[in-house]
Amino acid sequence: MPTSLATRVSYEALPGRVVFGAGAVGELAAEVELLGGRRVILFDGLFDAMLVERLERELGERHAGTIGEVAQHVPAELAASALARARELEADCLVALGGGSATGVAKAVAKETGLPILAVPTTYAGSEMTPIWGITADARKTTGRDLAVLPRTVIYDPELTLSLPPLASAASGMNAVAHCVEAMWTAAANPVTDAVAAEGITLLAAGLRGSVHEPRDLQSRALALQGAWLGGTALAVGGTGLHHKICHVLGGTFDLPHAEVHAIVLPWVVEHYRAAAPAALARVARALDAEDAVTGLRELGRDLGLAAGLADFGLRPADIELAAELAAAVAPDVPAPTNKEEIVAILESAMTMGTTGREQ
Ligand code: NAD
Predict the structure, then answer these.
(1) Nearest CA to ligand 1 atom 37
(2) Closest Cα to atom 11, ligand 1: which residue?
(3) In DSSP terms, which residues pair with 222 in a beta bridge?
(4) Which of 193, 266, 196, 259 minimizes the C-alpha distance to 227?
(5) What sign has the CA pseudo-torsion 67, 68, 70, 76?
(6) Distance from the alpha carbon of residue 248 to the mean position of ligand 1, in angstroms
(7) Could you tell me if the CB of 47 is within 6 A of ligand 1?
(8) CB 141 within 8 Å of CB 115
(9) Ligand 1 contact via 169 beta carbon (within 6 Å)
(10) Among 32, 130, 179, 216, which one is least packed by beta carbons within 10 Å?
(11) Residue 354 — very low, low, confident or very high, per pLDDT cuts 50/70/90?
């Protein structure tokens, strides 16, 4: 455990500027100026035409172009065409407006060019806080770390999340919860990520319950978005483990939606590590104000109306073997090694009994 005397910890803080607040997107042009951006590309993954027009107007002469082609898991062709467009427009700054898909395409361009990213997240995906990129080619998702893709500035405006529908909010929020949970048991876990992740879970549990019950409640939206910020921060340093490896296979190879898959798989992976990571599970339980981590996550899932299983998103029983094989090949040894059969068991459970652990 990271707090034990026997554990060696190395921790490196990541740089980045964050501007948080209702209406903060109005500061986009000023923040671009701070980054020295003169030819800005706007990656639009929100598809709110009025907002995009407003931002283009506010950027004025600094606006070089807008790219509306973004997709989950960043298909390689899409990354290549965005890169070609950025070069053609002689861009010097990338603004990602939207969820993890918009940030993901901007990261793919930054990885090749070193251009600075300013992210304006509108979901709880958390990618804006991480130096992790992902690209999918030939039905295989590859991820890696590169400081060049870490957004230099992040503008969090909870007003932009008011339009995220309840179920999408719930799934995206559980993706952020997963970042917090998994950061507690990776090899890179440390006292800073433990604290950040625990607070993230608490904020997300309260903020998501409020947001799903009353989607236009700005206070709940702000809590959830702050939780997502902490989730991304924990992920950025703590890194990913078995849960993310399984989700990346389901997204990259079987094209399942990212956030929904996280929500479904998470409690099953936590259950799987019950014996291997008792301290991490105890911290998760405390953060959820629950007796037990798995029970707390299932109750949260139930309160958020997350009823689906993997089968509802198109995973077939015949896919499980290959999915488990691919995930087992990259499964970490921390907090305990996991073999293919164990991943088959996780996936079989998650097929029809999703987040809540009940057969639908
Ligand atoms: P997404 O960006 O694909 O957005 C999902 C849908 O929600 C889209 O249709 C989008 O237009 C819509 N949307 C976004 N914001 C909205 C809003 N405020 N109101 C209404 N609709 C809105 O999905 P996501 O879950 O945010 O991101 C998933 C992607 O992010 C995956 O590719 C995943 O791998 C990646 N990701 C990367 C990291 C990282 O650190 N690299 C972390 C988390 C997620």
Answers:
(1) 127
(2) 46
(3) none
(4) 196
(5) negative
(6) 14
(7) yes
(8) no
(9) no
(10) 216
(11) confident
Higher pLDDT, 137 or 358: 137
**pLDDT (average), residues 90-106:** 98
| Structure-block tokens of residue 349 | 């459970």
CA 71 / ligand 1 centre spacing (Å) = 9
- 130 Cβ below 6 A of ligand 1: yes
Token code pair at residue 302 = 């139930």
What's the whole-number mean pLDDT along residues 50-55?
98
Structure tokens of 60? 């004025």
Kindly give the pairing relationship between strand 63-67 and strand 93-98: unpaired
Residue linked to tokens 């890696």: 144
Q: Which residues contact 182 (CB under 8 A, 6 or more apart)?
A: 235, 238, 240, 241, 242, 243, 244, 269
d(CA 346, CA 259): 17
In Å, what is the CA distance from 299 to each residue of 26, 174, 213, 356? 37, 12, 15, 7
The confidence band for 7, taking pLDDT boundaries of 50, 70 and 90, is confident
Please tell me the predicted confidence (pLDDT) of residue 87. Answer: 98
Place of tokens 């903020």: 207
Report the nearest-CA residue for atom 30 of ligand 1: 100
Three-class SS of residue 205?
helix
pTM for this entry: 0.96
Q: Which atom number of ligand 1 is nearest to the Cα of residue 134?
A: 41
- The pLDDT tens digits for 152-199 are 999 999 999 999 999 999 999 999 999 999 999 999 999 999 999 999
Question: Ligand 1 pocket: which of 72, 111, 179, 253 to mutate (most atoms <8 Å of CB)?
Answer: 72
Instruction: Out of 117, 127, 167, 253, give the residue to mutate to test ligand 1, the one with the largest number of ligand atoms within 8 Å of its CB.
Output: 127
Going by pLDDT thresholds of 50, 70 and 90, the confidence category of residue 6 is: low
* Digit-coded pLDDT (tens) for 129-147: 999 999 999 988 899 999 9
Q: Which residue, chain included where needed, has tokens 């059969």?
A: 341
